[in-house]
Input
Amino acid sequence: MKYMMLIHHDDAALAKANQSELWADYAAFNEALAKAGGSSGVRLQPASAATSVRIRDGKTEVIDGPYADTKEKFAGYFTIDAATLEEAATWAQRCPSARYGTIEVRPIMDMGQ
Output
């Protein structure tokens, strides 16, 4: 089954991290993930660059910033093909951003293709 690992991190905590060490950890993680058949991931620009759109009662609202005002922001994602949720969660534990926020693991719906 395919799983998505959604990265939510605290921008302030991540900014305090040793950047060369963080990116070396990410290079190792990406290499291991690729060998396991996962994607190398997609990194997003900071939440401050976001625009949120919603329609309520037929009226469109366009809002600067992320949908939710929380400490941890959605930062990117990876995918992995894993036999079980536990295996996918083990990959999430290896993600360097797990030290600076939360990695949400979610099964990708099989649309019968």
